[in-house]
Amino acid sequence: QSALTQPASVSGSPGQSITISCTGTSSDVGGYNYVSWYQQHPGKAPKLMIYDVSNRPSGVSNRFSGSKSGNTASLTISGLQAEDEADYYCSSYTSSSTLHVVFGGGTKLTVL
Amino acid sequence: EVQLVESGGGLVQPGRSLRLSCTASGFTFGDYAMSWVRQAPGKGLEWVGFIRSKAYGGTTEYAASVKGRFTISRDDSKSIAYLQMNSLKTEDTAVYYCTRVPAATIAFDIWGQGTMVTVSS
């Protein structure tokens, strides 16, 4: 079982907005602002989309935004496009003695 | 162009060893921490470990699932990070990605293409 909990799948129509949640604990998501989000297309390496909860790397569309409330982080994609269809993973620093970084189980986004 | 290229993957028997390499280009390798992340077939991402830059002691951290079996090292003169994997188990079968960790955060901003490691008899 993954340390961070994400929905297995979400879907939306082109032009709509969707939100993917990522729930952890006060030892990870809730305790640190080191939440990041990754997009992975089939057969490809992941790509960083959001870091430090809400910061976008250079070159990432401003349609992608991140936020956090308590132990839950969220990734919102506005103006859905066909190319957004992919798997999305959240990640967080954790103070766990057995891990320093934990990932969510991943969410499959389907653009209808 | 900023790039990471992994090599060294392949088929290996349980209990044997394998060393992966990650060759970096396009940035000052020694200024960055480097990390390894793996993905078992059809599964999610799993953090393996990282090595800090020399400026931060060059120390390492590992996930519990690999601690004591895997070792991460770096050669800044060659811009290469290594992942030495000993006592391999079938559950270590995965694509292994080399990643760069930007300063002052815990994220992975650059990823290699990945190299497949299959542990099977």
Could you write a compact summary of the structure shown?
Chain A has no helices and 9 strands. Chain A is mainly beta. Helices cover 0% and strands 50% of the residues of chain B.
Write the layout of secondary structure elements.
The complex is a heterodimer of chains A (112) and B (121).
Chain A: E1 9-12, E2 18-23, E3 35-40, E4 47-50, E5 64-69, E6 72-77, E7 86-93, E8 101-103, E9 107-111
Parallel strand pairs in A: 1-9
Antiparallel strand pairs in A: 2-6, 3-4, 3-7, 5-6, 7-8, 7-9
Chain B: E1 3-7, E2 10-12, E3 18-25, E4 33-39, E5 45-51, E6 60-62, E7 70-75, E8 80-85, E9 94-101, E10 110-111, E11 115-119
Parallel strand pairs in B: 2-11
Antiparallel strand pairs in B: 1-3, 3-8, 4-5, 4-9, 5-6, 7-8, 9-10, 9-11
What does this structure look like?
- The complex is a heterodimer of chains A (112) and B (121).
- With 112 residues, chain A is mainly beta.
- Chain A contains no helices and nine strands.
- In chain A, the strands form two sheets. In chain A, strands 1, 3, 4, 7, 8 and 9 form a six-stranded mixed beta sheet that branches.
- In chain A, a hairpin with a 7-residue loop joins strand 7 and strand 8.
- Chain A is globular and about 40 Å long.
- The mean pLDDT of chain A is 95.
- With 121 residues, chain B is mostly beta strands.
- In chain B, the strands form two sheets. In chain B, strands 2, 4, 5, 6, 9, 10 and 11 form a seven-stranded mixed beta sheet that branches. Chain B has a four-stranded antiparallel beta sheet with strand order 1-3-8-7, with no helix packed on it.
- Chain B is globular, with a radius of gyration of 14 Å.
- The termini of chain B are far apart.
- At the A-B interface, strand 7 and strand 8 of A face strand 5 and strand 10 of B.
